[in-house]
Amino acid sequence: MANHVLLNSVEHSDLRLITQRADKYGDNLWFSPTFVDEIRSVQAHYPIVFHKDQSSAQFTPVALFGFEQQENLFLESSKWCANYIPLSVQRMPFFIGRQDVTTDGVTEQQRVITLDIDSPRVSKTQGVELFLEYGGNSQYLEDIAAILETLHHGLQGNDNFVNALISLNLLEPMTLDITLDNGANHKLVGFYTINEDVLNTLSSDNIVQLHKAGYLQAAYLILASQVHFNDLVALKNKRVAQEE
Fold first, then answer.
1. How far apart are CA 38 and CA 138, in angstroms?
2. 3-state helix, strand, coil in the chain (%, to 5)
3. What is d(CA 100, CA 69) in angstroms, rounded to the nearest whole number?
4. Which of 99, 101, 108, 90 minimizes the C-alpha distance to 146?
5. Which residues pair with 106 in a beta bridge?
6. pLDDT digit string (tens) for 76-124?
7. Omega within 30 of 0 (cis) for the link into 93
8. Which Pfam families does the record associate with it (predicted)?
9. Are the C-beta atoms of residues 23 and 75 closer than 8 Å to each other?
């Protein structure tokens, strides 16, 4: 279970972060969230689909890394074999927290960086420093702060994106049947995608509406990303062959 603490240079001056990629560091993710402004980068490497949270019924665009839970087909020999790693993965095990700050009698909530102190990435002997010798943030931690800020605003914007797609009946359930080289069958279910037929028959007013919001390009990029299902199948075949 995660143990989030407010990061500070006094209590955590000696902490380091292991940046290698491996299952044992929590990279065995089969998908991770993305957002409109990141979709151009993500679609160059991964299929993008929509995940529906069973408790909240909320849809989120996600980059898909495998066909089943705890399967990341892009991990190989402590490396992530793609030129772009989604920000929601890059930021781990850091998160955005909130704390009350009172100035001149006025209390406001400010965003702060929290760390899962129990993450296997956290070390006192390996990895990159979080703080400089005299207490300032390392460049690594500054980069993490920038990622968290971008991710915060990007994920907040997903609600408007998804609501626009739903209002135009553009989301539909998807099923992907896969037959591997060894004859094994796999079925990917439970995700959603954009209905290309509906998208192509939208009225000109709706097209303009999506374009002005910056969502039209994102929708077509998501559809284009589905070519990477072929890459996932190839990676799955390679993984199965190595294990046999």
1. 25
2. 35, 30, 35
3. 37
4. 90
5. 103
6. 887 899 999 999 999 999 998 877 666 666 667 778 899 999 999 999 9
7. yes
8. SapC
9. yes
